[in-house]
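I had to read the description of the data format several times before I understood it. For illustration, here is how one protein appears when written out as sequence plus structure tokens:
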Amino acid sequence: MGYGDAAAGGRSRLVDALRWLPALAWATLIVVMSSQSSLPSLPFVFEGVDKLEHAGEYGVLALAILYGWRWPVAPRAYVVIAVALVFGASDELHQAFVPGRTADVLDLLADVCGATLCVAAHLYRVRRAAPVPTPRFGTSA
């Protein structure tokens, strides 16, 4: 292995590490927002809008994690949902200690639903984009 090979390998590892920045940045934003005693409300507030916000936040987090893993298929997708569950649970626990905020199991459920929906949409997109093998008639196995 020559010097150029090592440099290319180092660059590849750097690029792989940089792919995790969106997930890290988004997770940091979630933690910062959870640390606020009050959040600005949307102009079109209706009952349950916070659950949609939670689902959207964690759907984006799941997609950012998938991006970090180079858009994996099914086996890692379950890990992404589990990460969203654990991160969401820790976020709700954290909110229990923030003045003016409370922990809510329904928020955690919305987090997991958002992550699951985005992971499922990604898997559907991957499967639709995969070429369908055409059967070959007249050939022996």
